[in-house]
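Posting here for the record, re: zinc ion.
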Amino acid sequence: MDSDISVSPDDKGIDKLDKQPCPFCHTKNLTLMEKEVDIPYFGKTFIFGMQCTNCDYHKSDIEAAESKGPVKYSLDIDSEDDMNIRIIRSSEGTIKIPHITTISPGPNAEGFITNVEGIFSRVKSIIEATRENEEDKSARKKAKNLLKKIQKIMWGQEKSKLILEDPSGNSAIISDKAQKK
Ligand SMILES: [Zn+2]
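Prediction output follows.
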């Protein structure tokens, strides 16, 4: 199931600016995109995207139309249904899954709109990719166990937690179950 909301050059109703200079390869093959979406319980939101057809550079980010101030959410994950909970993460948002991973903000961070399942799928593919290049046996085994743990969480067989912090307020967990601080 893919429930990511994103912006692509083929979308209808987006604002698009073609043939812009790319910050990396410096050719004029960069497309700037902006899409407006209305997210229930979050409000009007802009998705920004940049994509270079020459060097494949791409970046996306999220911004709420209404400024919300710094936010911190905490979500207890204990069932398969929790996989459907909507997650909005701007490039300034930090996602912490205790004992598993931290998705950090920064200049190369991507903003995205997804759900809990989408987050765990991302983490899984990162661990899978590092495991393939890992030569150390014990590190490979550790990665394997982590993948097992994530799969159990996704099936609702093991409990987990997701913490989301964003000083810009452009991130959110859309659920009554999430505790907002
Ligand atoms: Zn480029």
